[in-house]
UniProtKB/TrEMBL annotation:
PANTHER family: CYTOKININ RIBOSIDE 5'-MONOPHOSPHATE PHOSPHORIBOHYDROLASE, LYSINE DECARBOXYLASE-LIKE PROTEIN. GO terms for cellular component: cytosol. This is TIGR00725 family protein. It comes from the Bacteria. Pfam families: LDcluster4 (PF18306). SUPFAM superfamilies: MCP/YpsA-like (SSF102405).
Length: 149
């Protein structure tokens, strides 16, 4: 069975990140591995383009209900209709993941991977958890209540 490497990252990226994602996808395919991504733009598209340019196979796990939403480099579009919940499918499908840049969606994929015991390696992935942390539990409750009132 072929080994599958997942590339996760932002859907909106600058040229520097696009070049990095392209190189990652290219190297994955050049070494004979299958690429899986979320199938859309940004990091996903650049990695897919790199993989295709190296003659590789690209799987796109799509959030919506139309396989034609996939970027032009996806060979096998998997239509889920479950929006961001597809992130767990990407993680479960991959044998290992590479996170490039990214935001909260990438954080969810990293969290799923960690929970499932999968390794994740990062390139230019400086994500922070992004939550306020309190030593005092009462203060945490107060802040939570303030945020909804």
């Amino acid at each position: 069975m072929m080994k599958i490497i997942g590339v996760i990252g932002g859907h909106s990226v600058d040229d520097k990140i696009r070049v990095i994602a392209y190189k990652v996808g290219y190297e994955i395919a050049k070494r004979g591995f299958v690429l899986v991504t979320g199938g859309l733009g940004g990091v996903m598209e650049a990695a897919s383009m790199g993989a295709k340019d190296a003659g590789g196979l690209v799987i796109g796990i799509l959030p919506g209900i139309d396989k034609y939403d996939a970027n032009d480099y996806v060979d096998i579009p998997i239509v889920t209709g479950i929006n961001e919940m597809r992130n767990v499918i990407i993680v479960r499908t991959a044998d290992v993941l590479i996170a490039i840049d990214g935001g909260t969606g990438t954080l969810t994929e990293i969290a799923f991977a960690k929970h499932l015991g999968k390794k994740v390696f990062g390139v230019k992935c400086d994500l922070e958890i992004g939550i306020e942390n309190f030593e005092d539990p009462i203060e945490a409750v107060n802040k939570a209540i303030e945020s909804i009132c």
